[in-house]
Amino acid sequence: SALELEDPYEPSAEELIARTAEAEDAALAVAGVTNSEGADAGFSRYTVALAASNGFAGEYARTSHSISATALAGQGTGMERDYDYSSTVFLADLDDAAMIGRRAGEKAVARLNPSRPKTARIPVVYDPRVATSLLGHLTGAINGAAVARGTSFLRDKLGQRVMAAGLSVIDDPTRRRGLRSRPFDGEGMQGIRRSIVEDGVLTTWILDWRSARQLGMASTGHASRGTGGPPGPAATNLWLAPGSMTPEALMADIREGLYVTELIGMGVNGVTGDYSRGAAGFMIRDGALAEPVSEVTIAGNVMEMLLHMTPADDLVFRRGTDSPTVRVEGLTMAGG
Fold it and tell me: Do residues 60 and 135 both lie within one domain?
C-alpha cells in the first residue's frame, strides 16, 4: 500500500540475538562504561481488522523492528544509567545496533559526577528525546475528551494563538512508513494530514465521534482503540515543524542555561497548565554544554512555555511523536 506499513522481511531469532549482542558489546566498549543492563531486539507483525455497526469493514497489516540498549557507567552510588533505542516499520530504516549501543554508553558516561546547580530563572533547552513531552502536554490539552470534560487548560483557545508565530505542529496518519500511520482510525474514519497548530494558531481539537458529538463537531479521524475497550481520541504521527537554526546556534547566546536530557515525574496540571518536573542534563555556559547536573526541578506553565519556545532545525522522525531541539525562555530551575 502507499503507506508502506508491512515489511515482507522477517528476521530469525538468531538474527535478533546477534543484534542484541552487537549493541551490548558496543556499549561495553565505550571507555567509562562499567556494566550493561542488556540490549533488546524485537520484531512483530500483526493485522488490524475492524468491522463497525455503521457498516464499515477494513483491515491492514503492520510490522515493527526495534533495538535498544541500556548502559551503566561509574561505581557504587556514583553510577549513572542511560539508553538509546530505535523502532521502525522496515528493517532497512532501523539504526545500526552498534550505533545504538555506543550512544547508550556515551550518554551514560557523560552523566558521571553530576552536581546540583543553584536555583535560577534561565533558558531551558530540551534535547529532542525530551522535547516530545512538550508536544504531549499540547495534545493532552486539545484531546476532545478533556475539552468536553472542561479539564483542559486550552479549552477556550480554539482559533487563537497558543504558540509563537511561525510555529506549526503537524499530525499525519498518512506518513509513509510512519510508526502511527494507518489507512483508517478506530472507528473506520480515514484520517488526513492536518496542521493542528498553524503559524502559532490552534486550528482543531483531536476528536473521535464520541467527543465530537459532545462538542457539536465532527470526528477528525483520531479514534484510537485496542481490543479491550471503547475508542478514545489520540494523535497519530505528530511533530513540531523544525526551525532554521542549528542546536548550537540556538544555544549560542545563552550565558547560563540548562540542557535537559531526562525528565522525571508527571508534574503537569491538565486544568491549569502548571508545570513542575524533575530533570537531569547539562548546564549551558557561554553557549556550550558544560558540567552534568541532576536532581533539578524545572517549573513554569505550559501555556507560557508553548508561547515562548523556539525549535532548532534537527528534526528526525524516530518515535511517532517527534520534535527538534527546543529552547524555552523564562523557566525556573530549582536545584541545591
Answer: no
Q: Is residue 54 part of a domain?
A: yes
Instruction: Identify each DSSP E strand in 114-255 by its residue range.
Output: 120-126, 169-171, 194-198, 201-202, 223-224, 232-233, 238-240
C-alpha grid cell, residue 144: 476532545
pLDDT of 266: 82
Residue 29 to residue 106: CA distance in whole angstroms: 10
- Same domain assignment for residues 183 and 258: yes
Structural domain count of the chain: 2
CB 264 within 8 A of CB 276: no
Q: What is the pLDDT of residues 23-49, one digit of tens each?
A: 999 999 999 999 999 999 999 999 999
Owner of C-alpha cell 497489516: 61
Same domain, 212 and 265: yes
Report d(CA 14, CA 24) in Å as an integer: 15
**Domain with 70 in it:** 13-110
Please name every residue paired with 274 in a beta bridge, in sequence order, or none if there are none. Answer: 301
Contact (CB, 8 A) for 112 and 292: yes
**Cell digits of residue 277:** 518536573
Same domain for 247 and 200: yes
C-alpha cell at 37: 543492563
pLDDT tens for each residue of 159-204 = 999 999 999 999 999 999 999 999 999 999 999 999 999 999 999 9
| Final residue in a domain of this structure, among 51, 75, 110 | 110
Cβ contacts of residue 32 below 8 Å, gap of 6+?
73, 74, 105, 108, 109, 112
Domain-located, residue 66: yes
CB 222 within 8 A of CB 235: yes
